[in-house]
C-alpha cells in the first residue's frame, strides 16, 4: 500500500504542477496580450489620424511625416472603408487571389466583418457633409501567435505529465515484475527440498503401512505442494497454453475447494452440457479460480453462504464468473483490488488478485475484472478468455 500511495501522490503532484504551470502561463500571456492589444490600438489611432491628414491635405500640407506614419505599419492588417461602404485602401491583409478585383472583393468582405465586430476607428473628414472613413484593423500575426502560445504550452505540459506518469508506471511495473519473478523462483526453490523429502517419507509409509487410510490423503497433500511449487516456478516464464477442457479445470478446483471449505459454504456450479475447450496452462489457471474462491470464502467471514461458478461460451470467447454472497467490496476500493499490496484482510499480503490478473491477462491474453459488487450482498468476478 505504501508504494501505491506514493505513486498516487506523485501523480497528484505532477497534475497539480501541470495545472499551476498552465494557469500561470495563461495569466502571463493574458497580460501580455492585453498590453499588446492596447499598443496596436494606439498605433491604429495614430495611423487613422494620418489617414485623415492625408485626405484633408492641400498644397501647403507637409506630407512627409504623414506618409512615414502610414508606411511604418507593416504588421497590423488594416482596411479603410468610406462612408458609402467601399474599400479605399487595405494593407497587410492575407488575401491570395489572381487579380485586383477579387482582392478588393475579399478585402470588402473582411472589412465589413471587422466593422461588425467593432474593430474600427471612425475618422470624420468633413463635419458639414458628415463624410467619414472607418479604419478597420485586425490583430497582428504576432498578437495572434501570442494568444495561441499558452494553449500550445499547455499541450506540451500535459504531454510531459503523461510521459512522466507513463514512465513512472512502467518503472513500477518493471520493479514489480522483478519482485514477482524473484519471489516466485525463490519460493519454488525453497519448497523443492522439503517436498522431495516428504515424497520419500510417503513412499516409506506406504510400504510399512499399506492399509492406512490416512497415507493416501497425505500423498494428495504432498502432490498438492508439488503442484504449488511448480506454479511458482512458472512465474516469470511464458508457459505455452495448450487446448484444455475448461470444464475439467473448473471441476478440479471445485473438488479441491469443496473438501477444504466449511460445510456452511455451498459451492454451486453452472456449466453448459457440452465441454468447452480453450488454450490454457491448467495449473496456473486453476490457481486463479482457487484464489477467487478462497477470497469468496474469506468474504463470508465464517458465515453460511454460496459460491457460484458459472461457465458459458460465445462464438469467440469463454466466460467464467465467480460469485459469492459475502460482504462485498466498497466502491472506493474497486479500482484498487488488483493492485499489489492492496488487501482488506488483517493478515493478507494483497498479492493474490494481482497475481491472478497477471496470469489471466499476460499469460492467457484474457481479461479479468469485478463485474459487480454490493456491500453486504456479495461480489462477482468475471474472466473472459479468447477461444
From TrEMBL:
EC numbers on record: 2.7.13.3
Annotated protein name in UniProt: histidine kinase
Residues covered by the Histidine kinase domain: 186-387
MF-aspect GO terms: kinase activity
Domain of life: Bacteria
Source species taxonomy: Bacteria, Pseudomonadati, Bacteroidota, Bacteroidia, Bacteroidales
UniProt KW Iron keyword: no
Reactions mediated catalytically: ATP + protein L-histidine = ADP + protein N-phospho-L-histidine
Keywords: ATP-binding, Kinase, Membrane, Nucleotide-binding, Phosphoprotein, Transferase, Transmembrane, Transmembrane helix, Two-component regulatory system
Transmembrane segments: 12-32, 148-169
PANTHER family assigned to the protein according to its UniProt record, in alphabetical order: PEROXIDE STRESS-ACTIVATED HISTIDINE KINASE MAK3 (PTHR43065:SF10), SENSOR HISTIDINE KINASE (PTHR43065)
Pfam families: HATPase_c
